[in-house]
Design goal:
This protein is an alpha/beta fold and 275 residues long. The strands form 3 sheets. The chain has a 6-stranded mixed β-sheet, with helices on both faces. Strands 2-1-4-5 form a 4-stranded antiparallel β-sheet, covered by helices on one side. A two-stranded antiparallel ribbon has the order 7-8. A hairpin with a 6-residue loop joins strand 7 and strand 8. InterPro entries: AAA+_ATPase (IPR003593), ABC_carbohydrate_import_ATPase (IPR050107), ABC_transporter-like_ATP-bd (IPR003439), P-loop_NTPase (IPR027417).
Length: 275
């Protein structure tokens, strides 16, 4: 794996080809509850597709379908123009779809480099003499985090001593190193302050500029709009629209998410008499 980032022009050139991932009219029900209905979007190399919606919009179900946890009841998925079916998260991961969930799948008391290779440890030797190659793991961890612009003080420090933004960045760099083509980020900025959220948005841009297709799940249009290239809006399991960046403004996204007329009505109710 190289530390050299592609130029923005190279990423843009790849965006004109078949999408890395295409979601075609996907639907999912749980009993009588419609969790998703007729949802479509595309994820292209070198671009960020933002999936926005409030609580209960269907974002979690959408993530689980892309990552192989659930199979859609209707519609289909395609990678590079070829229809695919994922029977498990392992199959999605083997196809190049990596998901960073909110819990980050990290062990707080374990060193950064151990978390970086958790489940995919490099080894040295052979047969009964095979052992964990800690020297290589530490060197690769430092190099790959550096390539993402992450300067760690000590790879031996417990990952739990890092800030929330730093832990998110380690999870992103780990997914990139292990061969992700599509990177799904589940609300990576939701529990962070303004400064730490900005740090994570920079790392999302780094992953994008390395040619990955990024799916950024969020309820915050102020975080999505600066980094997003495409915006899928969900409300109660249904799509409110799938827009390229030039087709919608941040204020329009906010209004659609908030319910437009409902928000205006609420503002009228909250006004003081005589205002």
């Amino acid at each position: 794996m190289t530390d050299t980032l592609p130029t923005p022009g190279a990423a843009a050139a790849g965006a004109g080809d078949a999408p890395l991932l295409e979601v075609r009219s996907v639907g999912k029900t749980f009993g009588s509850v419609i969790s998703l209905q007729d949802v479509s979007t595309v994820v292209r190399a070198g671009q960020v597709t933002c999936v926005l919606g409030d609580n209960g919009a269907g974002k979690s179900t959408f993530i689980k379908i892309l990552s192989g946890v659930h199979q859609p009841d209707s519609g289909s998925l395609a990678m590079n123009g070829q229809q695919v079916t994922f029977g498990s998260p392992r199959q999605a991961l083997d196809a190049g779809i990596a998901t960073v969930f909110q819990d980050l799948a990290m062990i707080p008391l374990m060193a950064i480099w151990r978390n970086f290779f958790l489940g995919s440890e490099p080894t040295t030797g052979w047969g009964p003499f095979r052992r964990f190659d800690s020297a290589t793991a530490k060197e690769v961890t430092r190099r790959e985090l550096g390539a993402m612009g992450i300067d760690i003080r000590d790879p031996d420090q417990p990952v739990g001593t890092l800030s929330g933004g730093e832990r998110q960045s380690v999870a992103i760099a780990r997914a990139v190193y292990h061969g992700a083509k599509v990177l799904i980020l589940d609300e990576p900025t939701s529990a962070l302050g303004v400064k730490q959220a900005g740090v994570v948005l920079r790392y999302i841009a780094q992953a994008r500029d390395r040619g990955l297709g990024v799916v950024f799940i969020t309820h915050n249009p102020h975080h999505a709009f600066p980094v997003g290239d495409r915006f899928l809006l969900l409300k109660r399991g249904r799509s409110l629209g799938d827009f390229a960046k030039g087709e919608v403004t941040r204020d329009e996204i906010t209004s659609m998410m908030a319910g437009g007329a409902e928000l205006d009505e609420l503002a009228h109710e909250l006004e003081r008499p005589g205002d």
